[in-house]
Write a structure and sequence with these properties.
- It holds the Pfam family CobD_Cbib.
- 72% of the residues lie in helices and 4% in strands.
- α1 packs across α4 and α7 crosses α9.
- It has 297 residues and is mostly helical.
- The protein has one domain.
- The strands form two sheets. Strands 1-4 form a two-stranded antiparallel sheet. A two-stranded antiparallel sheet has the order 2-3.
- The protein is built from twelve helices and four strands.
- The longest helix is centred in the middle third of the chain and has 30 residues.
Length: 297
């Protein structure tokens, strides 16, 4: 786990030929093939299985074939599955112009990482959206993969990343994907259920703990996503900032429940959110190391 995280810290995401780009093309071909059978939930489940399971099975078979190959594969797959450095780079690319007073530049960089309309956001709106993205993606891009790596090794991290990618491709409540993408959305929810709550607990322990736990308990149930709610409410409470509220997605105003308690976030709170995520990574490493030592004692 430490080696995979170190590789991510040193190199970040591959600038060219990222494996997820290739997987996205493969998944699009799988979708075209299976849609010939229909667009119901059963076909969507079969398509998900064809897109994800062969790669996980291949990784698993290679992993058990040789001890050293298994070690290299585990480290490589975890490096492929996480995006800690990328998350920090994208968030700081918003914070830097925002701190310099370049609101149009900050809006533009924010539009690269969120799906909401950023054109009319003020400084607080930009900071809020960025902090929300950091907290939520801390789970989606880091801790979910770390959890499944701890459970199943590299194939577990690979399974989580591919499932998360398919949720981003197919997990929409649109006419096209409402039924076909149902399995991708639900499987991602299941795989994220425990990691999201461990992430929320980590955020709570490393900030304003009582505030974070109270926000988690009272605010998470009102959030649409069963996993983003705990993560973002606990993170907002830990940072002592107010998140959530109205946002425009695809031209439609969405009234979201409030998250957290405290002042509206500013540009400086983006870095505080990144520090919270990084400290949570250290906490997870320490816990995994302790469990490993105790289990072999």
């Amino acid at each position: 786990m430490a080696l995979g995280l170190l590789l991510d810290r040193l190199f970040g995401e591959p600038p060219r030929f990222h494996p997820l780009v290739g997987f996205g093309r493969y998944a699009a071909a799988v979708e075209r093939l299976f849609r010939r059978l229909g667009a119901n939930r059963g076909v969507g489940l079969l398509a998900w299985s064809a897109a994800v399971l062969p790669w996980v099975a291949l990784a698993g078979s290679l992993r058990i074939s040789n001890l050293w190959l298994g070690l290299v594969l585990d480290v490589g797959l975890l490096y492929f599955a996480i995006g800690s450095r990328s998350l920090a780079e994208h968030a700081r690319a918003v914070a830097t112009p925002l701190l310099a007073g370049d609101l149009p530049g900050a809006r533009q960089r924010l539009s690269w990482i969120v799906s909401r309309d950023t054109r009319e956001l003020d400084e607080t709106g930009v900071a809020k959206a960025t902090v929300e993205s950091v907290l939520e993606n801390g789970n989606d891009a880091i801790f979910g993969a770390l959890f499944w790596f701890a459970v199943l090794g590299g194939p577990g991290a690979l399974m989580f990343r591919l499932a998360n990618t398919l949720d981003a491709m197919w997990g929409y409540r649109t006419e096209r994907y409402l039924r076909f993408g149902w399995a991708a959305a639900r499987i991602d929810d299941v795989l994220n259920y425990i990691p999201a709550r461990l992430t929320a607990l980590s955020y709570a322990l490393l900030g304003h703990t009582s505030n974070a736990l109270r926000c988690w308990r009272t605010q998470a149930p009102s959030w649409d996503s069963p996993n983003a709610g705990p993560v973002m409410s606990a993170g907002a409470g830990s940072l002592d900032v107010a998140l959530g509220g109205p946002a425009i997605y695809h031209g439609q105003l969405e009234e979201r429940p409030p998250l957290g308690a405290g002042k509206p976030p500013g540009a400086a709170d983006i870095d505080k959110a990144l520090v919270l995520v990084q400290n949570s990574i250290w906490l997870w490493l320490l816990v995994v190391a302790a469990v490993s030592v105790l289990s072999h004692a």
